[in-house]
Design goal:
By secondary structure, this protein is of the alpha+beta class. It has a single domain, classed as Jelly Rolls (Sandwich), CATH 2.60.120.620. Helix content is 23%, strand content 18%. It has six helices and ten strands; from the N terminus they run αβαααβββββαββββα. The chain has a five-stranded antiparallel β-sheet. The radius of gyration is 17 Å and the shape is globular. The two termini are 28 Å apart. The protein binds 2-oxoglutaric acid and fe (ii) ion (FE2). 2-oxoglutaric acid (AKG) binds next to strand 4, strand 9 and strand 10.
Length: 252
């Protein structure tokens, strides 16, 4: 099997950092080949999305792996599963693979979090972002608030940074250290993978007008046990999964 990641460290120390902050970056971890193949795949999904009407239930943007063989092949890639299992433990399910391409002028997205097993922290849900050509702060860049995930609040919302600061963030402190929660703008060189617990507050700054498209995909995995609202898997895909993904597709 062709490698998708260079060697990287994600042991106990890194896991503790991820559990403390809610996210962890693996800068430039993607191999050159994986970067090239994923860019090509995301370009193709982008074209298919442009040709597909909003009435399509299994839209290429949201069900990206079902429209592209390379993206599908990564769902059960040994290095992908090893990473997902280091974070979640052995018993995992695939949840979704979504194209997050942001062309120049894209508006980004405001502050939010996602739901899963909000009342039971023993069931995890991780987002694995592939920032294929990376990003710089303020240009389609990911923003986070370290420690926000510990609240397991699926309804974090903020139109912009000030709205988050004056709203959800106001008076909140890190549950382990007591430090006031704050906003961090990340930067990512090409080939960066960002790991994030799904309850973490996050936002994306607008992509600058003259910037090239930011090519990004997210793969989400979770421990089974609860319903998942973001489980975007078509019936046919679940019945006939890509090789190796057989045990990963069911809800429970
Ligand atoms: O486009 C991004 O970098 C992140 C999008 C996002 O919020 C998500 O997929 O959960
Ligand atoms: Fe999100």
């Amino acid at each position: 099997m062709e490698r998708i990641f260079h060697q990287y460290a994600f042991g106990e120390r890194e896991q503790r950092m991820m559990d403390h902050d809610g996210h962890y970056l693996l800068p430039g971890v993607m191999t050159k080949t994986a970067q090239e193949k994923m860019t090509e795949a995301l370009r193709s999904v982008q074209e298919l999305s442009a040709q597909t009407g909003p009435e399509e239930k299994r839209h290429p943007q949201r069900y990206s792996a079902e429209w592209n063989e390379y993206l599908a092949s990564l769902i059960a890639h040994p290095q992908m599963l090893e990473l997902a299992r280091r974070i979640l433990g052995k018993n995992i399910r695939y949840d979704h693979c979504v194209a997050l391409n942001r062309p120049g002028g894209n508006g980004g997205i405001g502050w939010h979090s996602h739901a899963y097993s909000d009342d039971d922290p023993s069931l995890g849900f991780v987002r694995i972002f592939f920032y294929v050509n990376g990003f710089e702060p303020g240009d389609g860049g990911l923003k986070v608030s370290a420690g926000s995930h510990l609240f397991r609040d699926a309804r974090i919302h903020g139109r912009d940074d000030d709205d988050l600061r004056n709203g959800w963030l106001a008076g909140k402190t890190h549950l382990k250290t007591g430090e006031p929660l704050s906003i961090q703008e990340l930067s990512a060189p090409a080939g960066t993978v960002a790991l994030m617990w799904t309850h973490a507050a996050h936002a994306v700054s607008p992509r600058r007008q003259g910037s090239p498209t930011r090519w990004t995909a997210v793969y989400a995995y979770r421990n089974p046990g609860r319903p998942s609202g973001a489980r975007w898997i078509g019936e046919a895909f679940e019945k006939n999964p890509p090789p190796g993904a057989e045990g990963l597709m069911s809800l429970m």
